[in-house]
């Protein structure tokens, strides 16, 4: 099965939850919606967010690259 057939999540949890609203390092955020985007961050794990929390995470999450590196994961 290719990465494309797998929904772009080869080797990853297909039910990943949103880490929003701002990608707190203490654990997943309060959202719980399925993550649709991966936001690249400097010296941190990528932040997985839903469409609602994409904008706030770009503005307020720690270590977000600029220009932001955003990837659609589903």
Set down the secondary structure blueprint.
Blueprint: E1 37-39, E2 47-49, H1 51-60, E3 70-72
Biased composition (Gly residues): 20-30
Biased composition (Basic and acidic residues): 1-15
Region (Disordered): 1-33
Q: What can you see in these coordinates?
A:
This protein is α+β, with helices and mostly antiparallel strands. The protein has one domain (1-74). Helices cover 14% and strands 12% of the residues. The protein is built from one helix and three strands, in the order E-E-H-E. The protein has one helix at residues 51-60; strands at residues 37-39, 47-49, 70-72. It has a three-stranded antiparallel beta sheet with strand order 2-1-3, with helices on one face. A hairpin with a 7-residue loop joins strand 1 and strand 2. The radius of gyration is 12 Å and the shape is globular. The two termini are 16 Å apart. Residues 1-12 have low confidence and may be disordered. Residues 20-30 have a biased composition (Gly residues). Residues 1-15 have a biased composition (Basic and acidic residues).
